[in-house]
Write a structure and sequence with these properties.
Largest sheet: 7 strands, mixed
Number of helices: 0
Order of helices and strands: EEEEEEEEEEE
Strand content: over 45%
Number of strands: 11
Radius of gyration: 13 Å
Shape: globular
């Protein structure tokens, strides 16, 4: 089985930064595309950012473009989300996801593996 473990969440003031990390383990993980999603209280899960297997292609939700950056280190089976200029509306549980396919996509149903989530809280 593939396991995804997130870290790096926490409490930060508006305008601050956080860096989320996600490491994949399990011998069956082939290093496909990876992504971050989030779920705010009372809201549906939403796409945040995705990155292709090779890292050359990325996608971002309009709400985070210019503030968040997704990257990956395939040698470590890891994906990162650098979040700058955080806003209170970024408060959510952030989930790492991975898929067997190599193309970065924004649809959550395309992802095969999910982490447990890490809480990000931005105070005003």
């Amino acid at each position: 089985q593939v396991q995804l473990v997130e870290s790096g969440g926490g409490l930060v003031q508006a305008g601050g930064s956080l860096r989320l990390s996600c490491t994949a383990s399990g011998r069956t993980f082939s290093g496909g595309a990876m992504a971050w999603f989030r779920r705010a209280p009372g809201k549906e899960r939403e796409f945040v950012a995705a990155i292709s297997r090779g890292g050359r292609s990325t996608d971002y939700a309009d709400s985070v473009k210019g503030r968040f950056t997704i990257s990956r280190d395939n040698a470590k089976n890891a994906v990162y989300l650098q979040m700058n200029s955080l806003k209170p509306e970024d408060t959510a549980v952030y989930y790492c996801a991975a898929r067997k396919g190599i193309v970065d996509v924004t649809t959550p149903t395309a992802y095969d593996y999910w982490g447990q989530g890490t809480q990000v809280t931005v105070s005003s």
